[in-house]
Write a structure and sequence with these properties.
The complex is a heterodimer of chains A (about 475) and B (about 500). Chain A has about 475 residues and is α+β, with helices and mostly antiparallel strands. Chain A is about 40% helix and about 20% strand. The longest helix of chain A has 20 residues, at about 225-245. Chain B folds into two domains: about 5-260 and about 395-489, Alpha-Beta Complex (Amidase signature (AS) enzymes), CATH 3.90.1300; about 305-380, no CATH class. The radius of gyration of chain B is 21 Å and the shape is globular. The chains are: A alpha+beta (about 475), B alpha/beta (about 500). The interface of A and B includes residues 83, 85, 91 and 279 of A.
Chain lengths: ~475, ~500
């Protein structure tokens, strides 16, 4: 195994969440009644014509800029011709040799703390197809008795992002896909839900002896519906290719299908069976020629990208493991940013958000009534000793469901700790007077009995004493 | 006897405006003419008399209020059966769309209809507009009203014949390689192909998208100008439609040709042009000179490659445009059990398309195939660029160019059906304007020895429609031809 190098490149398809489809005014929504969001254009009716969706073009430019691609001053749509029943025109409007976004890269952070730069070959604009459901008693495609086609998805704006073959392990590929997904999420251009198909990923994988500059025979894998299945499929396929090579057999260039159930890839079609797409420039759509000014306007709207954000959070003193959990979730990021802006110490704020807040959100399946202000108050009141850790948790849970302000909750639930040394000192004196036998034991070396004395003091304070301060005061007196 | 349906749109519009006639009377005249002769002409695939009558009655009610009418209001209009009409069958003269009823109106028809034009029916044509004689219709040929044994030209043969015979006052056609101008020439009417992009293609069922142009068939140049005034202007549904508002193209129509520099295309006067055509066009050019135009010889050195380039570009685009006719969503589907969806599509297309369509789909599929693309499609696009440059160079010295529209007059039905090359040569003078996107018009300029009409073609630079129409109108007025086809005798 160690004597082979795996080479991986990914082709990701991203459905944009624009209001309307790529070339017509139909609504672009997931999960609508079949064939309710269709019109003559996306159904490929005779005489209908495509008109590009300006917002979709704006979004792909945004994606390109986030990936450091060059935005082509002149790009063309092409027709990709092949027959398939769920493709209404029997050609897909796509891009070929003149894509909108050329080149670029995405930096990914690996588990060992290292960073890797993955090249982006191109990012281009195209349209999605409809969806076919094959029907039969057995449910197997090749035994299907009929096919049902839903054209709601036909014509949905689709961005294809092609990476360079720069990844060497399944882990790197997964990290790349995670980073791409996080990037698209902050750009707010797509729902990026792999389970709904708004983010889809095909992989090209080959193996070669280490040090070899020549790429091995490439296999394309399709049908991976989660990052985990991408990783599993790549691990399986690398192993299969290595075993084939080590057995002295030849690999064939082909497309293989990942089967989640069996955990294996199976051959779909060989290179010889590949389609000749007969690409040619789409005559119904003029060239796209974005002005520099327009591109710069879009660049100015780019949000902070995930990796830059992670580095910034680490610089704020948040531990990298916490940062990773924090940035993986949009609500957590918003709470964190808000709390820090309100003056909270970043490290404990991040911990509260990724632990206690996350637990409350998981339990309830909602974000509750919690705001960044709540988080900031919790952090501050714990830091200045106004509430104990346990009290803070209680206040947080209350705020999560009631939405009330933390100071108000602290008062209502009497969570304020007494830290005032005069009051607590009087209690300490009383406790020492009332329990001479225990004091004796402590002075005799039984340090553990301090707990009992703190407990007694706590009772006098109605449970509101700051335990740390109470213990200090007791020890001071007992030593003296 | 001249009936209402034999008048021009402008004449009828004046009578409607003055109240001399009603829209229903005008319509009934056209419908009566079609009832009387369409079994001999075969211009229509679908007639819509009931819808038309309803429309005309509505217009008469509206007219009675004294409200101003558009110049197209109440005029019996025919559409080549490649324009979608909401609720009215649209076949492209193909079995594959024999029962297809579109759910929407083409922009061209929507604009005419919106201004009150009355649809009398959908006209026959070559299947998917592929042909020059109208013999490629799945539903039978159209007969030239000048001689029913002869073709009307194509592919807009039904539209040209209907206008010639008074079955419609005017009609829309489409011109991809001459399909409006050549039948206009062979039928003795005016055929205008405007600048590519001036009229929206939305709802024009595509043959070759980069060449397809909506055109008009009319009995006068003025009517062509009137229709263009209604049809032109940006359409947000067609990304290739040109920016700009609707213009009034009748303005300046009578300004004459004095001082216009007109180039006679040298490459279009040699071999293959019938003597009768050469004589009529030559005489008309002399008249233009007499009217004050400066006439000199012009050259389009790459014109000889236009036909070859066209027969690579048009079939390539057609092979892709026609891929959607697969029996899955609409139109004809081959009966019987099919092994799988691809087999169903193959059988549907095998049975649904005619021979010429299949020939062009196969040509185009081949020309776009991996390994051949550069040699065929790529090369043809380069020729196209050279032809555009030829025109640009020529238009540095001329305001417009003149040539015959077609090398021949109407030929007998069946004469060229077995010889695709001979058929393709019909369009040798019209194709360059499609490749270059420039506007061109065919106007009747006389008859040959057999009494068949001859058309003269004028070509202007991009968006030069006003000059083009002005010159055509001057020639029309000067010649004063009374072209009444014998079928009406």
């Amino acid at each position: 195994m160690a004597s082979w190098e795996t080479v991986i490149g990914l082709e990701c398809h991203v459905e944009l969440n624009t209001q309307t489809k790529m070339f017509c005014g139909c609504r672009n929504v997931f999960g609508a009644e079949p064939n309710t969001n269709t019109c003559p254009v996306c159904m490929g009716h005779p005489g209908s014509l495509p008109v590009p969706n300006a917002e979709a073009i704006r979004r792909i430019v945004k994606i390109g800029l986030a990936l450091d691609s060059a935005i082509a001053p002149h790009s063309l749509f092409h027709r990709k011709n092949y027959f398939y029943p769920d493709m209404p025109k029997n050609y897909q409007i796509s891009q070929y040799d003149l894509p909108i976004c050329v080149g670029g890269h995405l930096d990914i952070d690996l588990a060992d703390g290292s960073t890797k730069r993955v090249g982006i070959t191109r990012v281009h604009m195209e349209e999605d197809t409809g969806k076919t459901t094959h029907g039969s008693e057995s449910g197997r495609i090749h035994e299907a008795e009929y096919a049902l086609i839903d054209y709601n998805r036909a014509g949905v704006p689709l961005v294809e992002c092609v990476s360079e073959p720069d990844m060497r392990t399944a882990e790197e590929a997964a990290a790349y896909l995670r980073e791409l997904r996080a990037t698209l999420e902050v750009l707010d251009v797509s729902d990026v839900k792999m389970e709904e198909g708004s983010l889809r990923c095909d992989a090209n994988i080959s193996v070669r002896p280490p040090g070899s500059e020549v790429l091995g025979t490439k296999v394309e894998i399709k049908n991976m519906n989660s990052i985990r299945s991408l990783e599993r499929a790549l691990l399986y396929e690398a192993q299969r290719q290595i075993q084939t090579m080590e057995a002295g057999e030849r690999l064939v260039q082909e497309t293989r299908h990942w089967d989640e159930g069996s955990g294996m890839t199976t051959s779909m079609r060989s290179k010889e069976e590949a389609f000749d797409y007969r690409y040619f420039p789409e005559p119904d759509i003029p060239p796209l020629e974005p002005s520099d000014g327009w591109v710069e306007e879009i660049r100015a709207t780019l949000p902070e990208l995930p990796r830059a954000r992670r580095l910034r959070y680490e610089a704020l003193g948040v531990r990298s493991e916490v940062v990773r959990v924090l940035v993986a979730d949009r609500t957590s990021v918003m709470l964190f940013e808000g709390a820090v802006a309100a003056g909270a110490d970043p490290a404990p704020a991040a911990t509260w958000i990724t632990q206690d807040v996350a637990a409350l959100r998981n339990e309830t399946g909602s974000d509750g009534a919690l705001t960044a202000r709540h988080v900031a108050d919790i952090v501050r009141l714990v830091a200045d000793g106004t509430v104990s850790g346990a009290g803070a948790k209680q206040a947080l849970a209350d705020a999560f469901s009631s939405g009330a302000g933390i100071p108000e909750i602290v008062e209502r639930l009497k969570l304020r700790q007494v830290s005032d040394t005069d009051t607590l000192g009087t209690f300490a004196d009383e406790v020492i007077d009332e329990h001479p036998d225990v004091v004796e034991k402590f002075r005799g070396g039984k340090d553990g009995v301090i707990g009992f004395l703190v407990g007694q003091l706590m009772q006098k304070a109605g449970g509101a004493a700051n335990p740390k301060v109470a213990q200090e005061l007791l020890r001071e007196r007992l030593r003296g | 006897m001249t009936e209402l349906c034999d008048l021009t749109g402008a004449e009828l519009s004046a009578k409607l405006a003055s109240g001399a006639v009603s829209a229903v009377e005008v319509l009934e005249s056209s419908l009566g003419r079609a009832d009387a002769i369409d079994d001999r002409v075969g211009a229509f695939l679908t007639r819509t008399p009931e819808l038309a009558l309803e429309r005309a009655e509505e217009l008469d009610v509206y007219r009675a209020t004294g409200a101003p009418l558009s110049p197209v209001a109440g005029i019996p209009t025919a559409l080549k059966d490649v324009f979608t009409t909401n609720g009215v069958r649209t076949t492209c003269a193909s079995l594959i769309l024999e029962n297809y009823v579109p759910p929407y109106d083409s922009t061209a028809w929507a604009r005419l209809s919106g201004d009150g034009a009355v649809l009398v029916g959908k006209t026959n044509c070559d299947e998917f507009a592929m042909g020059s004689s109208n013999e490629n219709s799945a539903f039978g040929p159209v007969h030239n009203p000048w001689d029913p044994t002869r073709v009307p030209g194509g592919s807009s043969g039904g539209s040209a014949a209907a206008v010639t015979a008074g079955e419609a006052v005017w009609a829309l056609g489409t011109d991809t390689g001459g399909s409006v101008r050549q039948p206009a020439s062979l039928c003795g009417v005016v055929g205008l192909k405007p600048t590519y992009g001036l009229i929206s293609r939305y709802g024009l069922i595509a043959f070759a998208s980069s060449l397809d142009t909506v055109g008009t068939l009319t009995r006068s140049v003025r009517d062509a100008a009137t229709l263009l005034s209604t049809l032109g202007g940006k359409d947000p549904r067609d990304a290739t439609s040109l920016d700009g508002d609707r213009l009034d193209y009748t303005a300046g129509l009578d300004d004459g040709v004095s001082g216009l520099r007109i180039g006679v295309v040298a490459e279009a006067s040699g071999e293959g042009v019938e003597p009768g055509v050469r004589a009529a066009v030559g005489a008309a050019v002399d008249r233009l000179a007499a009217l004050g135009a400066d006439i000199a010889e012009a050259h389009l050195p790459h014109a000889e490659y236009a036909l070859s380039a066209y027969y690579l570009i048009a079939p390539s685009e057609c092979s892709s445009n026609l891929a959607r006719y697969d029996g899955v969503r609409y139109g004809f589907r081959a009966g019987g059990a099919h092994a799988d969806s691809i087999a169903m599509m193959s059988e549907t297309r095998g049975q649904g398309f005619g021979a010429e369509v299949k020939r062009r789909v196969m040509l185009g599929t081949y020309a776009l195939s991996a390994g051949y693309y550069e040699a065929y499609y790529g090369q043809a696009q380069k020729v196209r660029t050279l032809i555009i440059r030829d025109y640009e160079t020529a238009f540095e010295g001329f305001d417009m160019l003149v040539s015959p529209t077609s090398p021949t007059t109407a030929f007998p039905i069946g004469a060229k059906v077995d010889d695709p090359m001979a058929m393709y040569l019909n369009d040798i003078f019209t194709i360059p304007a499609n490749l270059s996107g420039m506007p061109a018009i065919s106007v009747p300029c006389g008859t040959d020895a057999q009494g068949l009409p001859v058309g003269l073609q004028l070509t202007a630079p991009v968006l030069g429609e006003r000059t083009l129409l002005r010159a055509a109108s001057a020639l029309e007025a000067d010649l004063g031809l009374d072209l009444r086809p014998p079928v009406l005798a």
